[in-house]
Amino acid sequence: MALLGAIEAGGTKFVVAVADVEQPEIVLARASFKTQEPAKTIKDVQNWFDQYDDIVAIGIAAFGPIDVNHASQTYGYVLDTPKPGWSHYNFLGAMAAWLDVPYYWTTDVNGAGWGEFVSGAAKAVHNAVYLTVGTGVGAGIIVNDQLLAGMGHPEAGHIFVRQHPQDTYAGYCVFHGNQCLEGVASGPAIEQRWGISAKELPDDHLAWEIEADYLAQAVVDYTMTLRPEKVIFGGGVPHRAVLLPLIREKFAEKMAHYLPTPAVEDYIVGVEHGDNAGVIGTFYLAKSLL
Amino acid sequence: MALLGAIEAGGTKFVVAVADVEQPEIVLARASFKTQEPAKTIKDVQNWFDQYDDIVAIGIAAFGPIDVNHASQTYGYVLDTPKPGWSHYNFLGAMAAWLDVPYYWTTDVNGAGWGEFVSGAAKAVHNAVYLTVGTGVGAGIIVNDQLLAGMGHPEAGHIFVRQHPQDTYAGYCVFHGNQCLEGVASGPAIEQRWGISAKELPDDHLAWEIEADYLAQAVVDYTMTLRPEKVIFGGGVPHRAVLLPLIREKFAEKMAHYLPTPAVEDYIVGVEHGDNAGVIGTFYLAKSLL
After folding, report:
1. Would the pTM count as exceeding 0.90?
2. How far is the C-alpha of B28 from the C-alpha of B160, rounded, in Å?
């Protein structure tokens, strides 16, 4: 049986998986490894795949920023990152030296966004934004049935937001402080602002009102710029059930009926594939190379 | 000689023009009419074109919001607008009833953006943002050599911006007050904030520092979301020579080297076609139908 491989390379863990080329929806086997320094981590990945001798294509969906520009000298490299050892690491080169198959090289959010687009929450539309809110904030953007990529992949977690009047937090982003979405709305930002884990914050805490305000601003900005048919929230923070309804409410207030959008319950939604979105999307991207 | 027609439908004036199908760069004839109520204005347009009997396609680049969704019942209509008589006007229907040729129907900013993309400031790239700052603020966005259109055309002048610390102005946008870019950075916003015309404000006035701050925020947001290779400023306000260098300076500060972009002098630029960008782009869009 010809197999597809998927690598979801996250900042804290790597997930590897295989699927039948004919059934990218079904995860045949899956494992995960702690993200360590590159040589060690990549060795774990390769050792795991070595048990299969019929892999025909591999998708890699990696934490950013990464170089996805085919014309670049450093295509396939990880760019500047605070993760020890990973800056300027030739990820794709290390994989290609080990196994000569076609590789689809993209971001983790593009992998998950593509999974939701092909067969999840956005399967019926042509234009969508997948926004993940966890350790960081990132977006996979689909325009006219294609992943958006200009000079590089989107970094739409770093758009600027208006400070909430009750928020005095200085921000978590080392580049933009509290000016950008990631700086005020990522998991670490929530925890640092309130001094306790996001999980421990009760539903009626001001934290969620502030979080929803920032995320709703982002949905307004993406709506005005991209006119998507669906905005999908993934990542750890939106697991919190109180959040999505609050984002919808604030989005409607902030849009003030300026543009027609689908009913907010259909427009701003959660993931359908859960934790498998990234792996499934990455299988499909790998398959697109064949 | 087979001719292309172009209609640039603005809120204050309509521009009409014709070009040889083989040379869309050269405006053979051009006229303009004051924008009045629809029946009168469209009659002026049609009377002008009636002097030519070999028009083979017409492009219409209209003030928004307009319905550009081919699947919609109201495709070709103007949507809700404060301009008297124009809300829900079937612009395209009125034209098609007069002359049976193919019509390209898009926004004024898409027309001008396309002109700069095909043969102006963005001719060498595949991804660009054309931002016009005048009576309103609007964008034409090119992704992978195509005009971006999701559920409709972008309304990227209505993204939210962080209030400048020295700006206490309540904002001009009837939907978003001082929350959105158009509300604080359009020509009328500048004039209402300072009580004098933008033209009369001296170069060293705080007005330009504030204006550049807001426009630089917008360029950051578009950069993070769309990763364009070029951002082009058109419209009346950026004619002011002091503005573009200030926007570049503030853009660099705000990005804080988070992402690689071209050198700011090559990245954030003015139009090359001047007042003809809209007409030339609209000729090319009309020609694409043949």
Report:
1. yes
2. 41
